[in-house]
Amino acid sequence: MRISDVGDAAFSVDCTAGPVPAVLAAVLGRAGGVRGLVEVVPGLDSVLIRFDPLATCRAEVEAWVVERLGQAEGLAEAEGRLWRIPVTYDGPDLDAVAMACGLTPARVVELHSGTVFRVRLLGFQPGFAYLGTLPPELRLPRRAEPRLKVPAGSVAMADDMSAVYPWDSPGGWHLLGRADIALFDAERDPPALLAAGDRVEFVPR
Amino acid sequence: MTALRVVSPGLNTTVQDLGRFGYQAQGVPVAGVLDPVALRLANALVGNAPGEAGLELCALGPRLAVVGEGARLAVVGPVRLTLTRDGESCRLDHDRAHLLRDGDVLALGAVEGAATAVLAVEGGFDLEPVLGSLSTYSRAALGPLGGKALSAGAVLPLRRPHPSDEPCLLLAAPFDYGAGPIRVMPGPQADRFTDEALALFLSSDYAVAKDADRMGLRLEGPGLEHRDGAGIPSDGLVAGCIQVPGNGQPIVLLADHQTVGGYAKIATVISADLPRLGRAVPGTRLRFSAVSLAEAQAARRTLEQAVAAAVAALRSDGGGLDLAALYSANLVSGMVSGEEP
């Protein structure tokens, strides 16, 4: 198990060979915390553990996490709900994506809307869900220069993932289209609409 | 009700506390003040707990009118303050508390030489926390006042109907944030860069680009080369993470940073130096130096001791209107007691 410092107030637990990050985060959540623990943030292949360096020492938090790794190892992720999200496929990058992939734009739409995605991770922005996995024909690295403003509702893809941007924000993904859906509402509990494990289908409109 | 009414909002003035924790796993950024030292000192000046929410000013402060029975407030950071009372205007000092009356208008001018300054009010603002915090994250409209920066006409109700009788406190000296290189711990993905890139990063000047904001500082300087592309499987982030997208120009993440990101991170600024970064204005030239975890922990303890020492050294003001009022009250009380048997 590889553990890397992320400054003096956090460390990252590598899960490439270990438990599903969301499962480890859930196990740590149920364990009720340890002195100085501030936040547990699952990534795609890792879990970030944030602590208060004035309230605890890193070794103490690390030992608490390592003790619970075994518990998370064998557990599979729970099966989630199925969401069908209508999309207008008129994004500014649709043609460029088609060209880079050697496909027609119509074929890009067909492949994207023909995939049942799974929520692998929430993050980046409130309610932003990382959806896996994109068909191999559509995979492109993210843009070298991130856009300063991606409009809310943009349906996007990069690498092997897709997503809907819940908010106007900077972003480096390729924009395929638009959806109207409230992915986050602070009045809701939990505020994020999608949860890790949920399945998502995009429906062209 | 006693309140501050926003006459003009300034540029991106927001309510902030020390951050919103516990929701990063749902994608909710921590937010909070860019300069937590300034918030803690401003709160100490008005007798608040260190994490009470205040107003963070960026570039140009607001004009605020006091409505009700008066308020004690303090501004920490380099801002010109002008008080207008009964038609007369005078300058007030920052880095100290002031007692304001009903009808007073306080104009907070340009923030000069730092990116932000903080205003705290005795007792704090009577606002409704969102997801456990009064921090404003405007990109997702999270926080009090609709999750947005102040707007003209907005009213900030205060918890205290009137200020206490305590003397006004001031900082003994402006807080010393330290100088020298910004200290970082390499990683968590330093191995995703060439050896030359890390050496270059630690030996070059980087200038803060002009689009710096609460989310982060884009840096301009020698490009940093990745070993195998800029992309990584997205992982959790903290303020201070230095991510490098494909163009090789580093970005230091600040309070409003996204919760996870997919660019390799060459290094992470240590927690003791985050307040310095939060103060960095566009054009500032930064140097970075690598330290160990033990050195980072020692640096953080040193910062905490410096803040505690600054709080311990707060002193009462030695003059001005408030003392004159106190003096005359003493005289009156002396006369009364002289007539008693």
TrEMBL record, chain A:
One MF annotation (Gene Ontology) recorded for this entry: hydrolase activity
Presence of keyword Repressor: no
Top-level taxon in the UniProt lineage: Bacteria
A Pfam family it matches: CT_C_D
Keywords annotated in UniProt: ATP-binding, Hydrolase, Nucleotide-binding
Record-annotated Carboxyltransferase domain positions: 1-194
PANTHER family the UniProt entry points to: 5-OXOPROLINASE SUBUNIT B
This protein's name: Carboxyltransferase domain-containing protein
Organism: Paramagnetospirillum marisnigri
Automatic annotation (TrEMBL), chain B:
UniProt xrefs under PANTHER family: 5-OXOPROLINASE SUBUNIT C
SUPFAM superfamilies: Cyclophilin-like (SSF50891)
Start and end residues of each Carboxyltransferase domain: 25-306
Molecular function per GO: ATP binding; hydrolase activity
Keywords associated with the record: ATP-binding, Hydrolase, Nucleotide-binding
Name assigned to this protein: Allophanate hydrolase
The species this protein was found in: Paramagnetospirillum marisnigri
Organismal lineage: Bacteria, Pseudomonadati, Pseudomonadota, Alphaproteobacteria, Rhodospirillales
